[in-house]
């Protein structure tokens, strides 16, 4: 069984070969984006997941701002200098470093 190329495709074969060679020879250029390193969360003491509101306040003091609960289940946010604490009901679910 021999392989035959259709006549229409045969006439375009040199063009396709030239495109393939030029695509392979094209150099790739890209910009490199560098960003400053973010401070590690381990460098700053922060509330751990599962801590109660009472324990957070005892260990870190009163927050600079307490935002009211939103939604169901209620999510409450406390703001401290350098981080914010999110609570579901009375327990920490997430702590976010603020830069």
Detailed description of the structure:
With 99 residues, this protein is α+β, with helices and mostly antiparallel strands. It is built from two helices and four strands. It has helices at 7-25, 53-60; strands at residues 65-70, 75-80, 83-88, 91-97. The longest helix is centred in the first third of the chain and has 19 residues, at 7-25. The radius of gyration is 30 Å and the shape is elongated.
By DSSP, the count of extended strands is: 4
Mean pLDDT: 84
Anisotropy-based shape: elongated
Strand percentage lies at: 25-35%
Main beta sheet: 4 strands, antiparallel
Question: Can I get a quick summary?
Answer:
By secondary structure, this protein is α+β, with helices and mostly antiparallel strands. It is built from two helices and four strands; from the N terminus they run ααββββ. The chain has a four-stranded antiparallel β-sheet, with no helix packed on it.
Question: What tags apply to this protein structure?
Answer:
99 residues; 4-stranded antiparallel β-sheet; 2 helices; 27% helix
Blueprint (SSEs and pairs):
Elements (H helix, E strand, L loop, with lengths): L6 H19 L27 H8 L4 E6 L4 E6 L2 E6 L2 E7 L2
């Amino acid at each position: 069984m021999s392989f035959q190329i259709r006549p229409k495709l045969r006439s375009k074969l040199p063009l396709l070969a030239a495109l393939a060679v030029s695509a392979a020879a094209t150099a790739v250029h890209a910009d490199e984006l560098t960003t400053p390193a973010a401070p590690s969360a381990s460098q700053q003491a922060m509330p751990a997941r599962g801590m109660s509101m009472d324990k957070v306040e005892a260990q870190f003091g009163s927050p600079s701002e307490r935002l009211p609960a939103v939604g169901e289940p209620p999510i409450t946010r406390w703001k401290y200098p350098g981080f914010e604490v999110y609570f579901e009901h009375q327990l920490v679910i997430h702590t976010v470093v603020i830069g």
